[in-house]
């Protein structure tokens, strides 16, 4: 348990780095504490239009989506019937992932300036989606979900809302990490949604995990059978919730003048893979301004189960629980052969969470999908978080993603 505690402590430091905004123009609230800009405030600060929308899932969760309806570039202004791109974040993250590094490099702005109507989802339980029609987030029942529910409930609810609101019949999908996991679940268990996907772009796709190198997952994976029970008994149903204390602590430790900034950087690398040259340390406090965004403990447990089992399958409740839930001693694998949508897999050699060999296994299981391609990022050191925050993410990745999206427009 000591090893597990140390890794959690490191992860707590990493995920507790919310700090000041791009220009350092934080506001001070009435109680004297620094208030960090919201996603909408970040977008507005650059002059882009932004809207907030709330979609309700079939099981009652209320999910906030952020929308940039048009860009600022010539020809990208307001217009009817714009093609839609939907962006979905990863574990412990939020819609902020797609805008936090600014208009020159962040994918949401780049797409808006290319003429797209950009929507950014927030999965149940994160900072922007902590609401339910009848269950308080303080209750254990609110957190009774994994990323399985995000695939069968959250993504369909948000996509249905977007299509109703825009009048479109199809959209493009871009997901990072857990945003890809949920996509594969939706398309395999709710196969009708294959028909609404113009193109899907899986950045650092996570499904099979046997070969991951991250010491974080490898350290707690042996304890997943007891971790879920222990945390539930202790009332720790949410993992790494955001808090003002963590925000201020992260700012103090990780800003440029801090002696501990390199500790923050190295802690990130221990999770995602080392790539010092692509991490903008000056922006380190900025890019973590909205993390951690909150997640159910069961989400991490479920990933630990994938690493242990070598399967991409539903949550393991134990032999008796599985028999009651699934009618078998083992949980069923997700039927990836039911996926038919056009899919592009974007992967990298130095991704410690989505290993190349695991991405290749995923590719081999997508036997009926229209594979756009499996694209290796042309930088050997590119890691799991570089898909969002790398200094050169635009030329290394986003230019190609945008080009492929344009190729699959209606």
Q: Mind explaining what this structure looks like?
A:
With 410 residues, this protein is of the alpha/beta class. The protein contains 15 helices and 12 strands. It has helices spanning 2-15, 39-45, 107-113, 147-166, 178-189, 215-220, 224-233, 244-254, 261-272, 284-287, 297-309, 319-326, 356-365, 386-389, 393-407; strands at 27-28, 34-35, 51-56, 62-68, 84-88, 117-120, 171-176, 197-203, 238-239, 295-296, 342-347, 370-376. The strands form 3 sheets. It has an 8-stranded mixed beta sheet, with helices on both faces. The protein has a two-stranded antiparallel sheet with strand order 1-2. Strands 9-10 form a two-stranded antiparallel sheet. It is globular.
Write the layout of secondary structure elements.
Elements: H1 2-15, E1 27-28, E2 34-35, H2 39-45, E3 51-56, E4 62-68, E5 84-88, H3 107-113, E6 117-120, H4 147-166, E7 171-176, H5 178-189, E8 197-203, H6 215-220, H7 224-233, E9 238-239, H8 244-254, H9 261-272, H10 284-287, E10 295-296, H11 297-309, H12 319-326, E11 342-347, H13 356-365, E12 370-376, H14 386-389, H15 393-407
Parallel strand pairs: 5-6, 5-7, 7-8, 8-11, 11-12
Antiparallel strand pairs: 1-2, 3-4, 4-6, 9-10
């Amino acid at each position: 348990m000591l090893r597990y505690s140390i890794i959690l402590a490191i992860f707590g430091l990493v995920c507790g780095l919310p700090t000041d905004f791009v220009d350092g123009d934080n506001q001070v609230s009435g109680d004297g504490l620094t208030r960090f800009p919201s996603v909408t405030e970040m977008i507005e600060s650059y002059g882009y239009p932004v809207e907030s929308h709330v979609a309700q899932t079939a099981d009652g969760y209320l999910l906030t989506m952020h929308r940039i309806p048009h860009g600022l570039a010539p020809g990208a202004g307001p217009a009817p019937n714009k093609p839609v791109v939907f962006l979905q974040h990863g574990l412990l993250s939020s819609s902020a992932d797609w805008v936090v590094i600014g208009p020159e490099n962040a994918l949401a702005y780049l797409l808006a300036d290319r003429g797209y109507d950009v929507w950014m989802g927030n999965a149940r339980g994160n900072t922007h989606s902590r609401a339910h029609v009848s269950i308080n987030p303080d209750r254990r029942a609110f957190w009774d979900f994994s990323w399985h529910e995000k695939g069968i409930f959250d993504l369909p609810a948000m996509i249905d809302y977007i299509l109703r609101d825009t009048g479109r019949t199809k959209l493009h999908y871009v997901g990072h990490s857990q945003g890809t996991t949920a996509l594969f679940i939706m398309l395999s268990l709710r196969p009708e949604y294959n028909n609404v996907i113009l193109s899907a772009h899986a950045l650092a796709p996570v499904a099979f995990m046997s070969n991951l190198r991250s010491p974080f997952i490898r350290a707690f994976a042996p304890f997943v059978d007891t971790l879920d029970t222990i945390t539930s008994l202790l009332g720790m149903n949410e993992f790494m919730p955001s808090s003002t204390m963590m925000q201020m602590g992260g700012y103090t430790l990780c800003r440029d003048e801090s002696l501990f900034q390199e500790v923050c950087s190295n802690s990130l690398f221990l999770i995602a893979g080392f790539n010092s040259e692509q991490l903008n340390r000056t922006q380190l406090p900025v890019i973590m301004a909205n993390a951690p965004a909150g997640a159910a403990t069961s989400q991490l447990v479920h990933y630990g189960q994938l690493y242990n089992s070598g399967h991409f399958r539903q949550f393991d409740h134990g032999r008796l629980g599985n028999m009651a839930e699934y009618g078998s001693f083992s949980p069923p694998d997700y039927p990836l052969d039911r996926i038919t949508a056009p899919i592009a897999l974007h992967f990298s050699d130095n991704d410690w969470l989505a290993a190349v060999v695991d991405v290749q296994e995923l590719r081999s299981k997508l036997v009926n999908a229209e594979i756009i391609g499996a694209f290796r990022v042309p930088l050997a050191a590119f890691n799991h978080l570089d898909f969002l925050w790398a200094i050169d993410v635009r030329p290394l990745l986003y230019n190609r993603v945008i080009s492929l999206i344009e190729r699959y427009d209606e």
